[in-house]
Amino acid sequence: MPRNVFVWAATDLAMLILAACPSGALHAQSAGVQGEVALSSQLVDRGVAVTPATPILQGAVSWASPSGWSLGVSGSTETRSPGHLVEALAQASRSWVLSSDWQMQAGLLYYDYPGNSRSRAYDRAELGVSWIYRDILTFAVSGARVLHTDDHRTRGAADLDFHWPLAWHFSLSAGAGIAQTLMPAHGRYSYGVANHYAYGHAGLIWSDGPWRVDFEHIANDQDVRWSRHNPSTVANWVTTISRSF
């Protein structure tokens, strides 16, 4: 299973579903239906803790065509509350081969947080474009519109991710990004205390056939919270074990 798209930061649900979708020159060999299941120590979205530091079960299924189109859906649930989704995602994307070294991908994603009325305030649609150099370096920009609110401004984000193969099935992973907060600040425990924030990750990846383990340190430049009723913060280290099929 190709792992050539690191667009929306480590342990994000979008990374799981996009990783399940072939892109670029790999379409001819990998077109068809693919899937992935994963167990993470926390669900993180662009440096923001979506859940507390508790085991998260994730699953993704995608379909890709030889022409570069792909569709996918995925979902996440806390293992202590099986059957109760904390995040769901639908995705459609198109990939192009620009040269022997460069690929490009454009995708439309829909995020859904079905937990409660407060978490649903962060439901959003997002359009992103990424450029991939030899499956090593990825630069991505995106714009998101938050749904179910009267504020229809577009929130922008930009990400730069690096992936370098090492010996014994290991590889180095690192990245950084900046994004506008999805919701304006309201008090001490708001989603953000400014209209933008920076974040990053660094760690190791081990992969062998369908198996993969991510061990990442994730940080942001401020104490970003989803809301005063869900003051979850990002754990210093986040681990994800996944298997593709």
Strand-residue fraction?
Answer: over 45%
- SSE ordering: HHEEEEEEEEEEEEEE
Q: Helix tally?
A: 2
Sheet bearing the most strands, described?
12 strands, antiparallel, barrel
Assign an overall shape. Answer: globular
For CATH, the homologous superfamily is named as monomeric porin ompg
> Which fold does the CATH topology refer to?
Porin
Q: How many domains make up the coordinates?
A: 1
CATH architecture label name: Beta Barrel
Low-confidence stretches: 1-11, 13-29, 187-193, 224-230
How many strands appear in the DSSP assignment? 14
What is the end-to-end distance? 8 Å
Query: Rg to the nearest angstrom?
Result: 17 Å
Structural class: mainly beta
Global mean pLDDT = 81
